[in-house]
Write a structure and sequence with these properties.
Layout lengths: L7 H11 L4 H8 L3 H15 L4 H10 L11 H9 L6 H16 L4
Helix pairs in contact: 1-3, 1-4, 2-3, 3-4, 5-6
């Protein structure tokens, strides 16, 4: 299954679930209802052939559809770039902080 097989929202719900967010927390972030989040999760599960949300997260991770880190981690900045995705402010800030730390404390 290719990267385009999941919608942006389907990938987002799986990414957030992988990081331990509840459907209610995801709905709050999206500014929508819990049922809309559950619908996206079910759709992602169906597309991936998963039996549960945990199984869908596992399959998406194996296929490289979700980042191993949540946004705000320096590695996620590069993950977004490698996958042709825009980087968000949290990833940019984490990457910039890492670069500053590397400049201030270069490896011996």
């Amino acid at each position: 299954m290719g990267r385009s097989a999941l919608t942006v929202r389907e990938r987002d719900v799986l990414q957030r679930a992988a990081l331990g967010e509840s459907y209610r927390e995801i709905a709050r972030t999206w500014g929508t209802g819990v049922q809309a989040v559950k619908s996206r999760a079910r759709s992602a599960m169906r597309r991936l052939g998963a039996r549960s949300i945990a199984h869908a997260v596992h399959l998406a991770d194996l296929q490289g559809l979700i980042s191993p880190h949540g946004c705000g981690h320096p590695e996620t900045y590069w993950w977004h770039l490698r996958h042709g995705e825009p980087t968000d402010d949290a990833c940019k800030a984490a990457h910039a902080a890492l670069r500053r730390a590397q400049r201030n404390h270069p490896a011996a």
